[in-house]
Structures are given as structure tokens and as C-alpha cells.
């Protein structure tokens, strides 16, 4: 039986971005307070919706920080053989739920306001939105690299990206209101922001749920993987194959490999692990090599 390790690489990848997450948290929190305060003061739904998205930014980035720190601390505690890596996935799912709620509220409120749109001071909205846009650009740049490595960080990144687009929309709303006095610009932008974020939120929730349900990673054909291992010299059969994702960038596999009598089991094990690492990027694979009666008894399991 053997296994490979990739845990340290994932942990260090997340750890590298703690400072950037903290900086993004501070920037978005400051402008969240500004946008919400001015949004309610001016009755601007566009500012309120953008500020509400910033609330989810702050919560999302905060959850991302907590998840990374919790996973780092739990790695070496007895009984937590996989640490708390799933905390990152739970944080990403929580972010998606928050975004669904905010987007739904904004769309509902905007539709209600179409009947009697309130007067909104265009210049104030324009100036506040400009500040929010700058804050989102800073946070976007801070989180961009980490979003490629971690689903948790990607959740925070997507929230900032959605809010960046929302800030552009609020700028347009303020400009149109200032130049033309069109009261419908504000609720129209509110609806647009809500509709923009929904499909991206669904994609994030779907990826999170795939991991939590321990589905095979996207892009990994389990049947093809099984056939590849079975095609190795000396392998008679492969069964009880499981492939799942522990957290972003950490794919895990286990399988029972029945070998022909008299073959070098260590060499076959090494070849199978090398195959999984090189062709499927699965560096943590637990493979049980079986011969004779052990292989037959294992196949009789019903679950």
C-alpha cells in the first residue's frame, strides 16, 4: 500500500495570500461603510446595492481568511487527518448563499421602485461610486493571483469582481441622473447588478457542492483513469476506485490494484502513482495492491 503527498503545497499556496486578503478586507470594509451610509442618505438603490455587495465582499474575504488560518492551525492536531481544508469550501458555499440573497433583494427592491422612482442626487452618487470603484480595483488586483489556486479565494475574488462591475454601473447611473435627470437609471442599474451576479454565484455554488458531495473532479474521467491503471504491465484488475477533491488544488484518489502472481508489487505501485500524478495531477493516491484471495474478497463488497 502506498500514497503520495500534496498537502503542503496547497497549504503554502493559501498561506502566501493571507497578507493580500487582509489588505483587501480593510479596503472593502472602509468603502462598504461609505457606500451604505451615502446610499441610505440619498435613497440611491444603486449605491445601496453596491454597498450590499461590498458587505458580502467583506464577509467573504473574512471567511476566506478564517478558513485559511483554521486549516493551517488544524493540520497538526491528532484526529484531524485531513486538517480543516474543507473549511475553505464551506466558506465559498457561504459566500454563494450570501450573494444569492443580496442579488434577490436588490432585484425585488428595484422592481418595486419602478412604480415611483425617488429623486437621487447624481453628483453624490457619482463621487461615491468612483471611490468604490477604486476600492474594488485594489481588492481585485490583490486577490487575482490567489483565485487561480483556491476555490475559497475564488469566491472572494468573484464577489469583488461582481462589485467592481456594479461600481461601474453605479457610475453610469450617477452620470445619467446628473446629465439627464432620468430617475429610472438608478433602479435599472440595481436590477442589472443583481442579474449580473446570479450566474457567477451559481457556478461557485455548484463547484462547492461538487466537492462537498465528493464527486470526481471536473475534467477527470474515472473510467479512463481506471483503464489507464489497469493497462499497466503486471496489473490484472483495478476496482474500488474513488476520486474526489478535498479542497482546491488537492485531488485525492484511492483504489485496489490486483496484480498478477509473482510480479514486483513495489514497481507496479510506483508506476501507478507516477501515472496518476503525471496524467491526472493526483499526487495523493492511496493504492492497495492485492493478489489472490484478497482481491476476490474485496470485490464482494456491496457499498
Task: Tell me what you see in this structure.
By secondary structure, the protein is mainly α. The protein folds into 2 domains: 7-212, Cation efflux protein transmembrane domain (Alpha-lytic protease prodomain-like), CATH 1.20.1510; 222-299, Dihydrodipicolinate Reductase, domain 2 (2-Layer Sandwich), CATH 3.30.360.10. It contains 10 helices and 3 strands. Strands 1-2-3 form a 3-stranded mixed sheet. Helix 9 (265-280) links the parallel strand 2 and strand 3 (284-290). Helix 2 (18-42) packs antiparallel against helix 5 (122-147) and helix 3 runs antiparallel to helix 4 (86-113). The longest helix is centred in the first third of the chain and has 30 residues, at 45-74. Residues 4-13 have low confidence and may be disordered.
Record the SSE blueprint.
Layout: H1 7-15, H2 18-42, H3 45-74, H4 86-113, H5 122-147, H6 151-180, H7 185-212, H8 222-230, E1 235-247, E2 250-259, H9 265-280, E3 284-290, H10 293-299
Parallel strand pairs: 2-3
Antiparallel strand pairs: 1-2
Helix pairs in contact: 2-3, 2-5, 3-4, 3-6, 3-7, 4-6, 4-7, 5-6, 6-7
